[in-house]
DNA sequence: CGCAGACTGGAAAGCGTTTACCGTCATGCC
DNA sequence: GGCATGACGGTAAACGCTTTCCAGTCTGCG
């Protein structure tokens, strides 16, 4: 079913049919012909051919979203925000999940370029791998040179449009919250060290600690994968080696879920009586954990929405930044320090 | 950067360049020219134009996935499975989220048809709305007539390829598990009644109860939205009206999380001492709830993968069905019936 | 009445690929 | 040596749409 057939059925030219059905508003078509085309399209169940349109217009209505893992609630929330905004603009969202494989981000970005996506949102964290960052930057530059738009969620470089969540100050808030509850020996269950997000959160925590006059003990940081099991293992190791800790900051809620399980089931530690735990992100299930997880709330859906909005705006000459705040939510996993 | 430019740069014809870079194997190109084309492409950083290819080949490498909500872990897991399989086939996945708005599924299916998606996976549950089902069926038929492939996760109709999860027998398993723990007064927190998934789960529970010789009390079913709050509200209403219940089946884990919160915080009921709760789906956080949620495990990732595989196979003349089993996982939210 | 200008409809030139189809040339066989 | 046979390279016609011109028709106005 092609537009030409619709046109013939309606007894008009191809141009007219195009203007009626896909017209970009610049050109009007008379009442009579308009009706004829519309009913012909309806009758023949015409469905326009987006690839052909993309070719002719050299712009499409798909935006790409690259995440680490769709099943992770962190990315789920971001994706939901982005899709909600996409709907308003009648865009389709192509999601690619790298499953945390290093090269895949680059590969998918190329794929999205090939699709002539109008824009791409890089939702996963950047890394400290300079070579990879460089290659990615080149690919992004190439895409932008072709008229594509890119925004990152989380900082990746000064010359990119980004939606920055308050990872640093969030880390600080968490530490400060623990401090105010009387905790003086605070440890951190961290994620993969090469992730910028992790670095920033950790850095915020470190600075806050220093500002409060506490010594920074690098041995009180243990890292694991950004997964439940990673959190569990790291938390168990941390408290086995540093049993004197009374407060633990876990750098992401999924890990925190594992940490709670590990402290309880593997070490028999009561939370919050013996150890207080603070997570990060405030994913939907955080309040339902056992005990309800105190955590640093990040506006994930809002970040997804903001990213999509930003990616559609005309690129300013200067890179744009949207900053989103963090907020400490105290629930049942934190209490006054023991003793 | 077009293929023509690459060809010129390499000093070959457009056809040769196309064969080297995208060739479907039928035609070989000599060693020398092949190398010239490849290095020209590399040098010019050529990226092929997927819409143009889609137009010329009249088939694309994108598959669509329509879900209710990407942020829901149920769909997150399905999506993850589908994307993993998609990666093996070097396909891109376009995800559309309907946010449970009725007409949107149809709209997105049309959108995906317009994109000339090679295939579409309908992951959301069907409904009992006959008119909507009919319109959707027409759209699907149209798509298939154009050579598109569709598979549904969850039953929607006898003439569609489907990946069926054991909703009915899962409902039965849950009831039976409760029964074996001594529960005789069992209630159900149900989801939106128009969803087929809900109907099937409920139906399985009902049949199992009848098979066990228990009366079916329609008043012992309360439904709410398929959300945490929906589950909370329905559970609270259910146990307020039927305080004699000792076992509750909640038809999805997200609702179950809310139900646990409601029973504990709103009604002061101890789980499992006073009431046992069984959820459905076994989403990743189920084991971390408080208490750990007993639930009917469905192989969600596997369903996503199976759907993607199915959608790529040549359509058989007869509709294909993949059946996936359910399994009852007993954790801390269930115990022996009181008294 | 003649004409500028506004509207409206159509013809046709792309957009970047794929893929028949057609030469050309070397090879192997009788 | 003549000729069928492959292998390989190129030419050009689609693929379905958008959009620029161009032409024709109306309108209003001097």
Name some characteristics of this structure.
homodimer, 339 residues, alpha/beta, six-stranded parallel sheet, 12 strands, 45% helix, 16% strand, DNA-binding
How does this structure look, described?
Two copies of one chain form a homodimer. The first copy, chain A, has 339 residues and is of the alpha/beta class. The mean pLDDT of chain A is 94. At the A-B interface, helix 4, helix 5, strand 2, helix 6 and helix 11 of A face helix 4, helix 5, strand 2, helix 6 and helix 11 of B. Strand 2 of chain A pairs antiparallel with strand 2 of chain B, so a sheet runs across the interface. Chain A binds a DNA duplex (30 and 30 nucleotides) through helix 2 and helix 4.
